[in-house]
């Protein structure tokens, strides 16, 4: 534990040192790109920070096009890219000759044909990218999902909350008709305290979690069903912490609960889907709300940290869509050909937008990404961090992971994605 504290101190020193010690000064604050999709309260979005997170993820992208070789994380990367106004077709790793994220998704979907949650999430990513899920690289993902539906029970796959919710969201987003039995099955999984848990049956009060609850609410609200909203909102209100953010569970069973960016993002998306103002008095703790909690966990290079650990692509991949204010399944409008500026990639040289007739909004988006965002406070990420800074930060993160003995890795990876 002492080693972990020392390592954390080292990382804090590195990440708070003047950026000029390792890189050029950051550019002036850019004009934020317009929020795509449905119109939500501007107070609930931060597209500049979303651009910074995406720049971090581009640098973290593996040569096979994935984020951590994970379908779920890569799908979130694609969805967040489209939500922030960038073209998912441009998502290729920094490695020369690397594969695109969409190509990885196609291959990874083949290994998930028996998984309704993963197949549903893949469909959401394909739709967000403006592609046809019935003809995605020679694959019909809609047919695959339909094969996992059990007409007798209304359940998709194993009938768990994530399987049911992501399948319903996928059917809605792709223009299909959701069976009433499917939404009834999801409603039946709601716990007595208004929450949902990850499993295939309701659990006792206190056993649910914010992530499952947020995903279930987005699926039901996308289907026009609001009968569960009041109880679920009451539950989420009990989960909000003093810093304005949300933990996976507000329970001391696994130690002192702490807000994390993943949970913040999912709850924010759910609140937006239900028409809630996340910055209102009812969803604030003094001057703090869920968005200020998210901002506080973003590192200078755009990545997001998990409580008690360094930043990671696993945590960061969920966040951009929430910062852009786009719930799962909502329409995302991006500029064709506009890529996320790879400001964290070694040797990156900024280039003009690939579109000669770029609109003012697209140009603003390019500027926002090019600066890797300069938000409203001192913790705003700077896209001017050079390779030297990135290597220093990466080294500190490695030190933390070694000192932590794998405890964080087990806890973070145990969350469904």
Description:
The chain has 417 residues and is an all-alpha fold. The protein has one domain (2-24, 41-341, 367-413): Glycosyltransferase. The chain is built from 17 helices and four strands. β3 (304-305) and β4 (311-312) form a beta hairpin. α1 packs antiparallel against α16, α5 runs parallel beside α7 and α7 runs parallel beside α9 (210-222).
Task: Based on the model shown, name its key terms.
mainly alpha; 417 residues; disordered N terminus; globular; 17 helices; Glycosyltransferase; two-stranded antiparallel sheet; two-stranded antiparallel ribbon
Total domain count: 1
CATH architecture: Alpha/alpha barrel
The end-to-end span amounts to 28 Å
Annotation, overall tally of beta strands:
4
SSE topology string: HHHHHHEEHHHHHHEEHHHHH
Main sheet strand line-up: 1-2
* Rg (C-alpha, Å): 20 Å
Low-confidence stretches: 1-42, 350-413
Largest sheet: 2 strands, antiparallel
Secondary structure category: mainly alpha
Shape by Cα distribution: globular
Work out the strand percent.
Answer: under 5%
The third-level CATH topology is Glycosyltransferase
> Can you give the helix content as a percent range?
40-55%
Short structural summary:
The protein is 43% helix and 2% strand. The chain is an all-alpha fold.
Layout of helices and strands:
Blueprint: H1 2-16, H2 47-60, H3 71-83, H4 101-110, H5 116-128, H6 141-146, E1 149-150, E2 155-156, H7 161-173, H8 180-187, H9 210-222, H10 229-239, H11 261-273, H12 290-296, E3 304-305, E4 311-312, H13 313-316, H14 319-324, H15 360-370, H16 387-403, H17 407-413
Antiparallel strand pairs: 1-2, 3-4
